[in-house]
Backbone:
């Protein structure tokens, strides 16, 4: 299925329990579509969300609301059912909001173009953590729920580990030659995989984040803007040449290209709530929904990851030192009415 968006998309997200997909456009608009197998997607909502581009999109509160972030520094909460504005937090960041991710049922994290990551607690209706983790834009964030740690990647070529329990930046990697563009956690929490501007995948061992433990250089000469974890041994990658590939991790191998969105770069990838569809957006102004079973029919069962363990035996949680960067971290408990009002109805 293909949806013509009419403009450049930056992010997409699927509803957590229904057949609805959302995307944010360079125009500042938020678009919501319903979809179903063997039928044409229907646009449900068009929201003029921001005065500048809509870079980040995330469903929250079991899909009742959707958050969007923008270079206009604001984060907007929109009612999914009506399209009405619930609340807008002006100046949520001091720079353009580039990424929003879900953490728990009541917390989300956002990253901006100055390298700052913030954690928002919807129960306390406030910003509960501010991590000045990087020197350049936040490209991606993922969450290790068992250890309550955020893994962030940045255009400055580093990876950061932010500890939500201690409210500190636990560590930051050495500078890579590449911008880090995307990140996932694999191998039952033992490996962190980063996509880079050059197309190399960097593999970090958990607890040893100062430098990568392995590099996979054979994937693509193009940027790897999007990574999506399929299971503990396989990831789906989206590259700057428009190819979507299935890749094995330890052993590192290209299992097979599984789709070609277009000749333009893949911006983001996402699974539908039931993992029946893979969504991709690209610079060609389209959102495509791929039948995941058809894509992977020659690549093994989607829900049956390999039980073969890799040979890596690195330890856990040894890299606990603080970064030597001039930037530190600070706890910011926002009690201003703007922050309270923002989450009051969520």
Residues:
């Amino acid at each position: 299925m293909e949806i013509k968006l009419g403009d450049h998309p930056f992010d997409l997200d699927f509803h957590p329990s229904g057949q609805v997909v959302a995307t944010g456009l360079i125009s500042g608009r938020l678009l919501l579509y319903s979809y179903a197998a063997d039928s044409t997607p229907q646009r449900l909502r068009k929201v003029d969300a921001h005065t500048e581009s809509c870079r980040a999109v995330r469903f929250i509160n079991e899909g009742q609301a959707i958050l969007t972030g923008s270079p206009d520094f604001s984060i907007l909460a929109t009612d999914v059912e009506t399209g009405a504005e619930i609340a807008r937090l002006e100046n949520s960041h001091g720079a353009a909001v580039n990424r929003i991710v879900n953490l728990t049922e009541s917390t989300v994290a956002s990253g901006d173009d100055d390298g700052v990551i913030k954690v928002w607690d919807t129960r306390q209706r406030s910003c509960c953590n501010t991590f000045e983790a990087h020197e350049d834009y936040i490209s991606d964030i993922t969450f290790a729920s068992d250890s309550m740690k955020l893994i962030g990647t940045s255009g400055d070529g580093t990876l950061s580990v932010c500890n939500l329990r201690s409210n500190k930046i636990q560590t930051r990697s050495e500078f890579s030659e590449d911008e880090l563009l995307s990140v996932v956690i694999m191998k039952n929490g033992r490996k962190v995989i980063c996509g880079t501007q050059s197309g190399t995948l960097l593999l970090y061992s958990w607890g040893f984040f100062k430098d990568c433990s392995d590099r996979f250089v054979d994937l693509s000469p193009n940027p790897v803007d999007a990574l999506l974890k399929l299971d503990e041994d396989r990831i789906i990658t989206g590259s700057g040449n428009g190819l979507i590939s299935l890749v094995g991790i330890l052993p590192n191998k290209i299992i097979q290209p599984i789709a070609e969105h277009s000749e333009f770069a893949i911006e983001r990838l996402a699974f539908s709530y039931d993992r029946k569809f893979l969504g991709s957006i690209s610079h060609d102004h389209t959102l495509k929904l791929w039948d995941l079973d058809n894509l992977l029919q020659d690549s093994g069962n989607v829900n049956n990851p390999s039980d073969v363990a890799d040979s890596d035996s690195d330890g856990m949680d040894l890299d606990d030192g603080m970064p030597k960067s001039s930037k530190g971290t600070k706890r910011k408990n926002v009690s201003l009415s703007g922050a309270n009002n923002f989450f009051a109805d969520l």
Summary: The chain is about 5% helix and 50% strand. The two ends are 32 Å apart (CA to CA). The first strand starts at residue 2 and ends at 4.
